[in-house]
Specification:
The complex is a heterodimer. Chain A is an all-alpha fold. Chain A contains 9 helices and no strands. Chain A folds into 2 domains: about 90 residues, Rna Polymerase Sigma Factor, Chain: A (Orthogonal Bundle), CATH 1.10.1740.10; about 90 residues, Winged helix-like DNA-binding domain superfamily/Winged helix DNA-binding domain (Arc Repressor Mutant, subunit A). In chain A, about 75% of the residues lie in helices and about 0% in strands. The two termini of chain A are about 25 Å apart. By secondary structure, chain B is of the alpha+beta class. Helix content of chain B is about 25%, strand content about 35%. In chain B, a hairpin with a 2-residue loop joins strand 12 and strand 13. The chains are: A mainly alpha, B alpha+beta. At the A-B interface, helix 2, helix 3, helix 5, helix 6 and helix 7 of A face helix 1 and helix 2 of B.
């Protein structure tokens, strides 16, 4: 994870003074992670886009309450995740997103991140399918931790859980993922 | 680290859609009109609105042909009364847009008591047709596309001429959201098509005007009530509304 605390603190300070350009820069730094976190929760790309957008706008209006020097990302993720949860509740739910990701994976050539192992196309499909069969809270915690790449603390913040709960739930969810057919041999 | 965690990280890139340009959208929202605040306007105005539309709402529902649906709730915005019903009445698939007559801009401008607003800088350009209609009130419609294949309608009416001139029936498959846009009340309706009709001052439905409508933003922009209707997203509708000059 690339961290630019000094830049970020300066941008937060400028945004607090009412500079939309500074805030736009902050949004750009965090929009990937915010959108993906919202995707994990809503499982719908357009809901996730709205949640991210509304979350950033609400965060801007709440900047006055943001304690300067505190890490911005967990604070922001909590707001975006909250927007995402409200949408998920309102929409009742479908779970199309990863189904589509699975379809695309069959022909896919997605680039793995450097810290990850190379996974074969068949294995990707098996993993994503197994993930989609997990219960909601297991899926959310694995999605935040390993697909979005959030830390335990950030996952706790986004999902409204204690850090200890994230830890234990991650272990439980990984076990269930293996049981659900996600067990494989790394090449 | 165990293998399955590494594998999950390995599939992460393919698991998400491309991130949209959230930053630009947020900037536009912060720089444009104040953020729509769902519910605020509704809470402060509830009592007034309910009293004002109580009699009319019931009258209009009874007047819609074959409308036996139950009214669950109702409210009004910009002379349009909106009723939430348990199901929509049957609407003929042959029902057509009632837009009035097609006229040049100068002629349309002569007929309405407000300056006609047009969207600027949102990629719409000049409307394909401009109509002036006289059902319950004089209204101007900017039509994009063709009358039989409408892409977008922007309808403008003088907000203070007639307190109540049209109605909407919103069924269970349709969502709505009350907003505040530039400190003025607005309403966003999306999802399954809803029913739209014009009403006479008595509250009765004007014969032949009942039709299905798509996603709609209604905005009481000062003296002009604007309706933006089409297969568009909420974000797009708000962008168009803010661009009106």
């Amino acid at each position: 994870m690339v961290s630019r605390p000094l830049d970020e603190a300066a941008l937060v300070a400028r945004a607090k003074r009412g500079e939309p350009a500074a805030y736009e820069e902050l949004v750009r730094m965090h929009q990937d992670i915010a959108f993906r976190t919202a995707c994990v929760i809503t499982r719908d790309a357009s809901d996730a886009e709205e949640a991210a957008q509304d979350g950033f706008v609400k965060a801007y209006r709440a900047l006055g309450r943001f304690r300067e020097g505190a890490p911005f990302r967990p604070w922001l993720l909590r707001i975006v995740a909250n927007e995402a949860r409200n949408r998920r509740r309102a929409a009742g739910r479908r779970g199309r997103l990863w189904a589509r990701a699975v379809e695309e994976e069959i022909s896919g050539d997605a680039a793995p991140s450097p810290e990850a192992v190379v996974v074969s196309a068949e294995r990707r499909v098996a993993l994503l399918t197994a993930l989609a069969t997990l219960r909601e809270d297991d899926r959310a915690v694995l999605g935040c931790r390993f697909l979005v790449g959030l830390s335990e603390q950030e996952t706790a913040s986004a999902l409204g859980l204690r850090r200890g709960t994230v830890k234990s739930r991650t272990a439980r969810a990984l076990a269930r993922l293996r049981d659900a057919g996600g067990e494989g041999v790394v090449a | 680290m165990t293998s399955i965690e590494q594998e999950l990280r390995g599939v992460a890139e393919g698991a998400f859609p491309r991130t949209p340009d959230v930053a630009a959208a947020v900037r536009a929202r912060l720089e444009g009109a104040p953020e729509p605040a769902p519910g605020r306007w509704w809470r402060t105005r509830t009592l007034v609105v309910v009293l004002a539309v109580l009699v009319a709402a019931v009258a209009a529902t009874l007047a819609v042909p074959q409308a036996r649906s139950t009214v669950l709730d109702w409210f009004g915005i910009g002379g349009v009364q909106v009723q939430l019903v348990d199901r929509l009445p049957p609407v003929s698939s042959e029902s057509v847009l009632q837009l009035g007559v097609e006229v040049p801009l100068a002629e349309a401008q002569r007929r309405v008591p407000f300056r006609i607003l047009r969207p600027v800088g949102v990629g719409l350009g000049a409307p394909d047709e401009l109509h002036v209609g006289h059902f319950a009130v004089d209204e101007v419609t900017l039509l994009y596309g063709e009358p039989r294949r409408v892409r977008l309608l922007i309808t403008e009416v003088a907000g203070k001429v007639e307190p109540r001139f049209a109605g909407k029936l919103v069924g269970p498959g349709t969502r709505y959201e009350q907003l505040e846009l530039a400190r003025k009340p607005a309403l966003w309706i999306e999802g399954a098509p809803h029913a739209f009709f014009f009403t006479a001052p008595s509250g009765a439905t004007i014969e032949g005007t009942l039709r299905l409508a798509r996603n709609t933003l209604i905005w009481q922009r000062g003296d002009v009530v604007v309706r933006i209707e089409g297969q568009i997203s909420r974000a797009r509708a708000l962008r168009i509304a803010r661009s009106l000059r």
